Amino acid sequence: MDSLRATLSVLVDPLKYLVNLPTVLIEQASDSVSSFSTLKKENAKLRDEQFIDKTRLLKFDSLEKENIRLRALLENSFKLGEQLLIAELLSINTAPYENIVVVNKGTRFGVHPQQPVLDANGVVGQVFRALPFSSEIMLITDPNHAIPVQVNRNGLLTIAVGSGQLNRLNLPFLPNNADIRPGDLLITSGLGGTFPSGYPVAVVDDFTPITNKPFVNITATPKAMLDRNRELLIVWSDSSPVSLSTPPTLNEKGSEISTSAPSIDNGLVNEAPEVKPTKKKEGKPTTRSGLSNKTPKPVQSETAGTDQSSLSGLTRKAPREAPARIDGDE
Amino acid sequence: MNNYTNSGRIILTIIIAMCFRIVPWPGFLTSINPDWVLLVLIYWAIAVPERIGIFHAWTIGLLIDVLTGRVFGQYALAYTLVIYVCLLLHKRLRQFPLPQQGFFIFFCLLFTQMLLFWLQNIQHSAQLHAYFWLPVVTGTLCWPVIYTALRRVRLSRRTK
C-alpha cells in the first residue's frame, strides 16, 4: 500500500512544487534586490554571532569530554553522532485543521518515518510519512502527537501533548504537587526512542495551581518557531550504546577511562572510526543530492564534530543550548 | 480529434483544481478553501457524462488522498459515490437553474464532508474544528463561478 502511495505521489508531487514555485520566486527576487548595505550588516551580525558561538563551543568541548569521561565511568556511553539534513518547507496546505507540514526531502534522501525534526531553537516534530520527493512532518503541536519530555531543572519526566494551536503544548499528566514552575525549560527525555535526548522542546507557561483537583492544567510554549521557519533539520539519531571495550586503547592511563581515551584526548574529530559506518550510510544521499539538486544540502555533522563549526548553523545550535543546560543544573 | 481536445481540457482543469486545493491561502481563507476538485468533477460529470466515469472519480480521489496525505481511499470513496449520483441525475441536473443546482451541490459537499468526518473518526477520535464544515458553504457559493467558467472552457472548444 505504501509503495502504491509512493508511486502515485510521483505523479502528484510536481503539483506541490508547482504551487510552491511563487514563494520560491518571490524569495529569490527579494534576495537578488537586497542592497549591499543590508548584506554587509547581516554579514557583520552573523560574524558576531559566530564569534560568540565559537567561544561557547570552547566550553562545550571540555564539557563534552567530561561527559564522555563520566559516562565511561558509568560504563554506559552513547554515541553522540547525529546526522542532519536540511529540508525546506513547501508552502502548500493539505489539511488546515491538522498541524502537518510538507518538506522537500523524501525517501530519495533516505528520510524515513518517525525521524525527529528540529530547527535552530528546538524540536519541531517528526516525519510522519516519507514519499519519494517530499515528506510530511507532524508538528509537536498536532493534537495526535505526544512527545516525552523532561523538566531541565530537576529531571521530572512527563509527556507533552499537542493542542492543535501552533503556540501551545499541554502537559496533562502532572500531579498537582509536581515540582514544575513557570519558565521551566522542557527538553526531550529520550524515552520512547524517537527523539534524541537533550533537545529543548518548550517553556512552561504561567499557570495557577488548582488545589482541589488531582491534575493541573499546565501549558507550554514550543521553543521552535513552528509558524515562521522555512528550513528544518531532519535528524538521524543514532543513540546506540557504544561498547567501551571495542575502541583500541591508544594511551594507557586508567582502566575505564583509557577505553574512551582516543575520542577524549585528540579532540572529538577523532571519533571518526566510530561514526564511520553511519557516515557511509549517508554517503549515498549526498552524492545523489549533488546530482539532482543544485544545492546539495545534506550536511553531515556530528554534534561532536565541533571543528567544522564554520560549516553550517547546525553545530551552532547544540553549543548554544548546552551551556544553558549546564547553568540550569548548577 | 474532438475527443483529444476535450479530455485534455478536462485533465487540465482538474490539475488546476488540484493546485487550488493545496495553495496556501492567507490566514482564514485556508480553512474555508473549498474542495475545488470535486466541484470540477461534478461539473464534468453533469456536462459530459460520457467522458467522466466512476473509475475516473475513483482514480482522482486516490490522487487527492496522496496529495493531501489522507488515509488511502478516503477521497476515492467519497468522490466515487458523489459522481455516481451525479451521473444518475445528470439529465435532470442540467435542466435545473443555478440556485437549484447549488442546492444539490450543497448536499453533495455536505455528504462528502460527513463521510470524511466519519472515516477520520474511525481512525482516531478526530478533534476537528468547526471550520471543518465551512468548505461546504464556500464550495456551494463557488459553484456558479465554476459552472460559468467551465462552461466557457467547454464551449470554446465547439466554436473552434
What features would you highlight for this structure?
heterodimer, A: 330 residues, alpha+beta, Thrombin, subunit H, six-stranded antiparallel barrel, 6 helices, 14 strands, disordered C terminus, B: 160 residues, mainly alpha, 76% helix
Kindly describe this structure.
With 330 residues, chain A is of the alpha+beta class. Chain A has six helices and 14 strands. In chain A, the strands form three sheets. Chain A has a six-stranded antiparallel barrel. A six-stranded antiparallel beta barrel of chain A has the order 7-8-9-12-11-10. In chain A, a hairpin with a 5-residue loop joins strand 7 (146-151) and strand 8 (157-162). In chain A, helix 2 packs across helix 6 (314-329). In chain B, 76% of the residues lie in helices and 0% in strands. Chain B has one domain (2-159). By secondary structure, chain B is mostly helical.
Précis, in short:
Chain A is of the alpha+beta class and 330 residues long. Helices cover 35% and strands 21% of the residues of chain A.
What is the secondary structure topology, with strand pairs?
The complex is a heterodimer of chains A (330) and B (160).
Chain A: H1 2-33, H2 36-73, E1 77-78, E2 82-90, E3 100-103, E4 116-118, E5 123-130, E6 135-139, E7 146-151, E8 157-162, E9 169-171, E10 185-188, E11 200-204, E12 218-222, E13 231-237, E14 241-242, H3 255-259, H4 261-265, H5 272-292, H6 314-329
Antiparallel strand pairs in A: 1-14, 2-3, 2-13, 3-6, 4-5, 4-13, 5-6, 7-8, 7-10, 8-9, 9-12, 10-11, 11-12
Chain B: H1 2-22, H2 36-47, H3 54-68, H4 74-95, H5 98-123, H6 134-159
Global outline of chain B: globular
Number of domains of chain B: 1
- Taking all Cα atoms into account, the compactness measure Rg of chain B is 15 Å
N-to-C order of helices and strands of chain B: HHHHHH
Describe the sheet with the most strands of chain A. Answer: 6 strands, antiparallel, barrel
Question: What sequence of helices (H) and strands (E) makes up the elements of chain A?
Answer: HHEEEEEEEEEEEEEEHHHH
Give me the secondary-structure category of chain B.
Answer: mainly alpha
The amount of helix of chain A comes to 25-40%
Task: Please report the two chains with the greatest interface, counting residues with C-beta closer than 8 angstroms to the partner's C-beta.
Answer: A-B, 27 and 24 residues
Q: What proportion of the residues of chain B form beta strands (DSSP E)?
A: under 5%
Uncertain runs of chain A are 242-330
